[in-house]
Q: What sequence folds into this?
């Protein structure tokens, strides 16, 4: 960390570069960034902007963002579309509202979409930007920990299908990501915890030192210590940016970012979107992946214990919802994107803390035993 | 030409390479290609294929394509989805049927979409391939002249919005394009003529020698002389492939492929999709663009005359539908993708035959005069 924990950062942003050749872009991280109009304005193309946000975030930050886009910049006109809030609206009907607005506004290719909100808004607005007129300019302003540390980085955009999450979408990179950590002041506790599930994930799959830092600082994160949060966000973005730079289209390495997500998606689908938060499902999914890794003899019991210990400190669940059955897990997991030629590949821990594998070569019994251990039937 | 006109080609395909770095792919052109299973099979990834086709083409060629995919290749299973035929079904609802089928079939990333049909099928199936699981493998088998010489080459995929054509889509390249010229045997005369509008376009914008060849051979094309058609398709694909290689994402040069299309799209939209064929609208649009180029003093009258002469020989219209008004043209053209910061850029001929420009710098009066000349009100 650059500053002692507890002191609020301000001024120039910390920048994490996502290195993707001619599609590279910066992630600006810091406090008060929305009060610095030039940070946004230098990434706007054309004279028109559409801000895509939701009913929760609009009353909190829309005016601030419009001001940041227009201050000292009268040539730019800003319109906005306010969508209903929630994962269940991450669908084709809601996406069409974004297209409708863009067409009504007579936008041409030289305009900019701005996503203001959490992961749902970022994913939908990003897919709209990827698809409208075969691709237009796009800026992300994520306002949740989940979006700041995970979904806003790396260019995965898309919507859900009634039969599964994120089945329809595109890889599409933004012009920049602007993370103003002050937007977390209004984030509900449960959403904060949900985002921390992804922070913990980075430690487990590739950054043991970061995991150890979290073990020492989890209470500070939960108490919203600004510098602790800024550090966790920066280090998470660095981890994700490095993985994405090495494997943008998810041919292998990038899949490791899905630790706990295959089990987690089954919980979200089986339980119904919106009943549990994404990070809550991922937390339980992580415990299941760790349990399975241990059954395979790939990690020692100390890692199991450390995961079981840190998740409750982050206010995250470690047990599967009571209504989940082995059959529910299996039927959703069979649809997972990581199935190849019928074989389900999983991200599992292997070796010392901070190491994982993405593989379809494991003893099926270990998977069955883990599912049985986490389900009543 | 490699062979005298009139002798039917067969055997090994003529190959036009589309050079796009690591997304390069071949276009195979020839007679009897669907009887050579290896041509298709070498481009199939994974063990599952979904053929996307329509109610017109399925009874004619679906069995043949399924056989080409599976002959001597029992490991591959083929499913299909048969969509209603027509531009009016190139919409989000119909696209969702393709996603539904893919999800029902429990497809994973290692599978292949095959588009079997005209431009509507190719565009929709291509957008489905671009968007399903963030992008899967994709093969085009175009069965109309329009799709063979234009829409199947270059990776533009997408659907229409109620307010405008092709407003939603992606740039996404196939694994290969397979053009079996035998599939044209069942193409209605009006559809054949429609495709020739794009063939004529290549001559006008960049290939005067090809235009001169067409002036000598138009009656052979209309009479479906197999070698004349194969040559026109090959040379059109070469022209398009060259343009696309130089400007995949349409930052400039590629826009020149839209000669006549801005006027043409207005006719299609104003007249109602399906009332006139795309190439018919483009033919009239080309006459309008040529008229405007002449009013600007950018071409001499001999080019106007040659265009007015060749289009009727290709059974294509040169007048705007009677119901079109100046206002209808203007309101649709204002939504065109080539508008930049409010300024409509057009593709216009300039200089000797085979030369064009893509520009927003022209005298507005010439545009107004052309619109008035082609509309009753």
A:
């Amino acid at each position: 960390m650059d500053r002692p924990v507890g002191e609020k950062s301000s001024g120039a942003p910390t920048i994490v570069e996502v290195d993707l050749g001619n599609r590279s872009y910066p992630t600006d991280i810091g406090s008060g960034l929305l009060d610095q109009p030039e940070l946004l304005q230098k990434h706007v193309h054309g004279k028109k902007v559409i801000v895509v946000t939701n009913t929760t975030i609009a009353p909190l930050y829309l005016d601030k963002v419009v001001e940041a886009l227009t201050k000292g910049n009268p040539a730019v006109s800003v319109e906005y579309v306010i969508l209903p809030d929630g994962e269940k609206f991450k669908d084709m009907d809601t996406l069409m509202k974004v297209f409708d607005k863009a067409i009504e506004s007579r936008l041409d290719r030289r305009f900019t979409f701005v996503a203001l909100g959490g992961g749902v808004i970022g994913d939908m607005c990003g897919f709209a930007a990827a698809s409208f007129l075969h691709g237009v300019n796009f800026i992300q302003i994520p306002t949740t920990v989940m979006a700041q540390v995970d979904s806003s980085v790396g260019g995965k955009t898309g919507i859900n299908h009634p039969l599964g999450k994120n089945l329809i979408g595109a890889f599409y990179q933004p012009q920049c990501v602007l993370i103003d950590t002050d937007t977390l002041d209004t984030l509900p506790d449960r959403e904060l915890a949900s985002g921390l599930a992804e922070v913990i994930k980075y430690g487990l799959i590739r950054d043991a030192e970061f995991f150890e830092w979290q073990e020492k600082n989890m209470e500070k994160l939960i108490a919203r210590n600004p510098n602790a949060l800024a550090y966790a966000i920066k280090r998470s973005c660095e981890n994700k940016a490095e993985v994405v730079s090495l494997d943008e289209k998810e041919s292998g390495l990038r899949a490791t970012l899905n630790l706990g997500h295959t089990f987690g998606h089954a919980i979200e689908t089986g339980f119904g979107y919106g009943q549990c938060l994404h990070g809550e499902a991922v937390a339980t999914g992580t415990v299941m992946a760790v349990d399975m890794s241990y059954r395979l003899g790939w990690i020692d019991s100390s890692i199991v214990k450390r995961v079981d210990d840190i998740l409750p400190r982050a206010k995250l669940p470690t047990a599967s919802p009571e209504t989940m059955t082995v059959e529910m897990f299996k039927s959703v997991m069979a649809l997972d994107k990581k199935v190849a030629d019928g074989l389900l590949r999983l991200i599992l821990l292997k070796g010392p803390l901070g190491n994982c594998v993405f593989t379809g070569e494991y003893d099926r019994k270990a998977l069955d035993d883990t599912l049985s251990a986490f389900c009543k039937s």
Notes: Residues 190 and 315 of chain B are 8 Å apart (CA to CA). Chain B has 13 helices and 13 strands. Residues 206-374 of chain B form a domain with the Dehydroquinate synthase-like, alpha domain fold (CATH 1.20.1090.10).
